[in-house]
Amino acid sequence: NGEKILGYLSSNVLSHDLIPPHVNFSHLTPSDYAEVYSVIKTVKEDSFAQLGLEPCVLEDELNKAVQGTGLAFIAFTEAMTHFPASPLWSVMFFFMLINLGLGSMIGTMTGITTPVLDAYKVQKELFTVCCCIVAFLCGLLFVQRSGNYFVTMFDDYSAGLPLTVVVILENVSVAWIYGTKRFMQDLEDMLGFRPSIIYFYLWKYVSPLCLIILISATVIEMAISPPGYNAWVQELAQERFQSYPPWALAMCFALIVVAMLPLPIVFIARHFSLMSDGSNKLSVSYRKTMMKDISNLEEQDEARFILSAKPGDPPLSGVAHKPYVTPAGNKSVDPNSLSPNVCYGTSYQNAAISPTTPTTPTTPLTPESNS
Most buried residue, 67, 173, 244, 296, by most Cβ within 10 Å? Predict the structure, then answer.
C-alpha cells in the first residue's frame, strides 16, 4: 500500500499536501499508514475505490484464518490469550488436540490392520508398528513450511470424491445386490428386534439418490473451479489464488485414482478367479473366537447344546429323538445324564467302561410313538 501511494504521488494522482510531514515511507508504521489512509479516503471520497488501497488491520487478517487448521492454531489460540489463567487453558486445549489425534490414529490403524489380520497370518504387533512407522514418514510431508498446502491438497482430492464413490458402491451392494430385506433380517438376528421400516426406504432409495446428487455436485465443482490453492504473496502482502504446477496436478489426480483403484482391481481379480473371496474359509480372528467359545462351554451343558437351539435351553419339544444306548447293552438312558464323550460318536468310549470289558452288539430300539 505504501508503494502504491508513492506511485500515485510521483504520477500526480495524489497531492503531497495529503501526506502528513512526520510520515516517512522508508519506515512506515501501521499507525502512520492508518493516518494517511484516513486522510486520502476523506479527500478522495469519489475516486477512492479506484486507488486500490486497503486498510492494514491485524484483526481482519485473523478473521480470514478462521477456517481449517487456522481455526485451531491461529484464531482460537489468539482468543485464549484473553482468558483468565490463559496458560492453563492453552495446555488443556492442545492436550485435547493430542487426544483427538490419537483417537483418529487408532481408528485409522484399526481400519488398515483388521482386514489384513483377518485374511492372513501376520503378527499383529509387528504389523501395527510397521504401519505406524510408514504413516509417520508420510506425515513428515505435512510439517514442512509448505505443509499446509499439502494438507489442503490431500483434504480436497483424497477424501472427497473417492470416499463418496466408495460409500455409494457399498450402499448399492448392500441395498440392491445383497438385498435390504435380507440385511434387515440379519440385523434382527443380531439385535433381537426388527429395525423400523423407515430404514428400509432410506437405505434402498433415499441414500443412493442423495449420494448420486453429492457426487454430481462434486464433479461439477471440480470441473468449474480450476485446481489451485490460496497462497500468501509476500511482494503484494496479500493472499492470492495460485494454480497448481504440473507436478502438483499429477499428484492431485493420482490421489483420486489411487484411492479408488482397489475397487476395480479386486473386482477383476475375483471375477477371473485370480483372488479368493474367502468364502471357503473362516477368518483367523473368527476361528480364534469360535474355538474360545467352544472351550468355555460348561461340561454339563454340552449335551443340551447339541440337542437345543441355544446352550442352556431344554431339548426341542415335539421331536422324537432316538434313545441313547450304552456300549454295554441296550439300556435306554437320559441324554442329559450321559458323558459328553458318549454323545459325540462311536470313536469315544465311556470312561465308566473298562477297555477290557467285552461288549455285546447293540440292539436298536424302536422309538416310542408320540401318541
Answer: 244
DSSP, residue by residue, 82-97? TSTTHHHHHHHHHHHH
Residues in CB range of 354: below 8 A, 6 or more apart: none
Let me know: does 36 contact 9? Beta carbons within 8 Å. Answer: no
DSSP-assigned states of every residue in 53-76:
-----HHHHHHHT-STHHIIIIIH
pLDDT tens, residue order, the chain (371 aa): 888 888 888 888 888 888 888 888 888 888 888 888 888 888 887 778 888 888 877 677 666 666 667 777 777 887 888 888 888 998 998 999 899 988 988 988 998 899 888 888 889 999 999 999 999 999 999 998 888 888 888 888 887 888 888 899 999 999 999 999 999 999 999 988 888 889 999 999 999 999 999 999 988 988 888 888 888 777 777 778 888 889 988 998 898 888 888 888 888 888 888 877 655 555 555 555 555 555 554 444 544 444 444 444 554 444 444 444 444 444 444 444 444 444 444 444 444 444 444 445 555 444 444 44
**CA-CA distance, 84 to 244, in Å (whole number)?**
44
Residue reference for cell 481408528: 107
CA angle 52, 53, 59 (to 5 degrees): 125
Q: What angle do CA 225, 231, 237 make, to 5 degrees?
A: 130
Q: Is the pTM of this model over 0.90?
A: no
* Measured distance CA(216)–CA(222) in Å, rounded: 10
| Cell of residue 234, nine digits | 509476500
| Cα 161 → chain centroid | 14
Spatial distance between the Cα atoms of 195 and 208, rounded to a whole number of angstroms: 19
Residue 160 CA from chain centroid, whole number: 12
